[in-house]
Design brief:
This protein has helices at residues 15-28, 30-35, 46-49, 52-55, 57-63, 83-95, 101-106, 112-123, 139-150, 162-165, 184-196, 206-211, 216-227. The protein has 253 residues and is mostly helical. The relative contact order is 0.13. Residues 226-239 have a biased composition (Polar residues).
């Protein structure tokens, strides 16, 4: 595990007495401990402070303790996505090639090993999926979305989503994310950002090529259908399969 200097600005009711007791023991020895008895559990564990669970606290505030995302889908599920994909997104936020100010600020000064460790942590999580709320979408909308997701549109050069994101929509190692559990508004937002160039990936940027071929109606349709799919609990990304992929994708190198 990569270790960094520990910030000793502890918070909570026991923080002051914990540091006072520790300083007392360091400078005055056992006699101090005898005159000022401190419960053992009040002394901070520096191993806990310098743990991956401590480091991801900035992430879980929005994405959930295990990366399950929020029920309304505003903050997406990041659990069980390939570590390579998560790492690519973290470096994109850090380097400014993907823009979302809270994320850009959060990871601005984090080194690669630190970001890799965070990515591996959330890739290993398997929290349950939350139920999809809201009214059911228009059947005509989801029908077109199902065709795009499972068959594609050869006439427009649009491959099926499942060709890369997996039959169970759980993603593919090392760099293609799962789509299960995402809300329609999030999917629409990301596909639109790919189409207008606000999101980019390593060239050849296969998502850019696909998104530019989608109409607004196509995007709404595929988002509606994907959001209605029941994800497989505990599913993991599929192994890399470059032969099956319809387009060359830089994120799979």
């Amino acid at each position: 595990m990569i270790r960094f200097p520990i910030d000793h600005h502890l918070h909570g009711p026991g923080a002051g007495i914990s540091l006072l007791a520790l300083a007392c023991l360091l400078f005055h020895g056992a006699s101090c401990a005898q005159t000022r008895a401190v419960p053992a559990d009040a002394i901070p564990s520096f191993e806990k402070l310098d743990s991956i669970e401590a480091r991801v606290q900035g992430c879980v505030t929005c994405h959930g303790q295990k990366g399950q995302g929020t029920a309304d889908g505003y903050f997406p599920r990041i659990a069980a996505k390939p570590a390579g994909y998560l790492y690519n997104q973290l470096t994109a936020f850090r380097d400014g090639t993907r823009s979302y100010p809270p994320m850009n600020y959060l990871v601005a000064y984090l080194p690669d090993p630190y970001l890799k460790e965070i990515a591996e942590y959330f890739a290993a999580q398997r929290p349950p999926f939350s139920a999809v709320g809201g009214p059911a979408p228009d059947p005509a909308l989801t029908q077109r979305g199902q065709v795009l997701a499972t068959v594609g549109d050869p006439a427009k050069g649009i491959p099926a989503c499942i060709a890369c994101h997996g039959a169970n929509l759980s993603g593919m190692e090392p760099g293609i994310p799962g789509l299960a559990g995402l809300r329609p508004a999030y999917i629409v937002g990301q596909l639109t950002r790919w189409r207008v160039g606000e999101r980019r990936a390593t060239e050849p940027d296969c998502m850019k090529r696909i998104a530019t071929r989608l109409t607004d109606d196509d995007i709404s349709s595929v988002a509606a259908w994907l959001s209605q799919q029941s994800p497989s609990s505990g599913a993991s990304p599929e192994p890399s399969n470059l032969v099956r992929m319809p387009l060359a994708c830089g994120s799979q190198r």
